[in-house]
Hints:
Number of strands of chain A: 2
Distance between the termini of chain B: 61 Å
Oligomer: heterodimer
Shape of chain B: globular
Distance between the termini of chain A: 47 Å
Amino acid sequence: MDKFRRWIASSDMASIVVLAIVVFAVLPATTDIFRLNLIGKYLTYAFVAVGLVMLWGYGGILSLGQGVFFGLGGYCMAMFLKLEASDPVSTKIQSTPGIPDFMDWNQLTALPFWWEPFRHLPVALIGMLVVPMVLAAVIGFAMFKRRVGGVYFAIITQAVAMIITVLIIGQQGYTGGVNGITDLKTMLGWDIRTDSAKYILYFANAILLFVAIFACRAVQRTKLGTLLLAMRDKEDRVRFSGYDVANFKVFVFCLAATLCGVGGAMFTLQVGFMSPSFVGIVPSIEMVIFAAVGGRMSLVGAVYGTLLVNFGKTYFSESFPEMWLFLMAALFIGVVMAFPNGLAGLWESYVKPWLLRERQAVPVPAPEKTPAVAEDPSEAEAASTRPVARSPEHAPASKNRSDGVDPAVA
Amino acid sequence: MGLSASDLWNIVVMQGFAGLSLFSVLLLMGLGLAIIFGQMGVINMAHGEFMTVGAYTIFMLSSLTETYAPSLMPYYFLVAIAVAFVLAFAAGWLAEWALIRHLYRRPLDTLLATWGLSLGMQQIFRSTFGAKEVSPTLPEWLLGSWSPTEGLDIPINGMFVMGLTLLVTGGVFLMLYRSRWGLRVRATVSNRGMANAIGINTRNTDRMTFAIGCGIAGVAGAAFTTIGSTGPTSGSLYIVDAFLVVTFGGAASLLGTVASAFGIAQTQSITEFFLTGSMAKVLTLLAIITILMIRPQGLFALKMRR
């Protein structure tokens, strides 16, 4: 039992295992298919949150346009599904059979050429990965090479989100406009609206999410991950050491964008539509708060954060709709002012020491104490080498606190 | 379809006026933010909501005047603008005290916190005034249009907004560059530590600056009630534009804000004449981003040691 507690407290693998148990066993066992589908939808946002942990927590780059990439991935999938749903037989009442219904409503008589490739599933699958990645690469190279960063980057990504939203809504003949692409039915003849399909998609989504988490964890553990942290904390020093900072930033931005794309495609499959309401500024900023609540430095925390905020949103908008925005406001402000490291921070600073202290208290007899003591410094050392992985906000916050105390003591 | 020379002239004048009108709207939006974001470096995502505070103030005062003192209808508007400034100023003062001052060192976190603030304010508006859009009853003299020649219509509310913009811009210039307060603000911006050392209370300066920026946002919101209606979420429509105006102009430069508002407004109203509204918006935004890519520091950058 003692060993188990220690493992839980000290290994980051343990938190992934616990999350896996929650996602693969607890949630499917305790909820009906309607709720499970809803959770599946939340888990697609978790891709964005995981991407933001890499981008924002590790890279120190705050993007307020992650919804764009989520939307692009989703639209790639939705275009394929829509084309399959609008075969000439089921659309024969239209004036031009064989094209999506919204095109027909907008007096289009032929499928636009850039829709053509999306008749094939492989194209859609590659598209959901590549389209967000390429856009991110273009924006990233343009911005980071010119050393646009921090606040300015956030504002520009916001403008990008606005551009894409306006474009999608404005070009309704090509994109379905404000309603988005709806009435999606089958994927290669497999009806995605049945309960069994929803189960399968939920698990497929969850598996992909864990693949994403492991991939990000792998990146964090390489030299690249260390460099990202170094870059976040002292960009100039990394640059003076001979690294091209911009390339690392572009990489992590592309990584986050690709994850968003996967999330978006899974969203389309599970929810059955895609619309510009997931692309704009508001959803993009909401996605940032998922990561912030979970803990901007913790991949697993981001998933919990996403689930928690979305459960809250669903619960409050069903029961007390007017309370939800206040709660959301409190969440934004609280997470910034009081808990800059989110749920994961609470775990690190309260639960973990408690678990570890409990273990120390158990061996009372003196002779057995020696190995425990010998073990402790090594752990303390491990902890002291780790602070790099903490959020930079930690330092000024604690400094302020001591500033406030000093005069009182004096 | 024969377009005579005078028709063409009228189109040019009306287009020019539309551009100028958009210019004054953008500038009015950007001015408060130019002080808060440009001078102080605080990313105030709730800026639009402070504008909405001003707009709702006008609405409240107009309905009050209508019920209790209908004879004062022609005059209430000017008083209401002053009240809008005071209320938004007070709200800004409070926000700075409760929230912003703790976050000066963490710009990205300020962004999230003020976004939260904006959500809260939106819900307060919705609970107080209802979810529907409202518009105040405007005094007679603000309605209608002025037609100096045949076929030329220039709306009076547009001219009013323009005049107000001129007044506010002039006021901000005077305050920033000709008053003790402006001197303190500029000193604090360029070197906080040194400003502190020579006895400027930078904390008070910060609070005052933030509150004045919010007050100007309130005036902007008040002016916009003459053009459109106000809803709880109207503020969020302006926020991206406002930030782009300030960023594009070069954050610390007030002149840059004026120039960028002018450039953006003219580009948009000219492209709008040839294309649909949404495409004009897209093209303008793309142009701004491209230029920002080439000149990340904006049009008018102040040379400053960091």
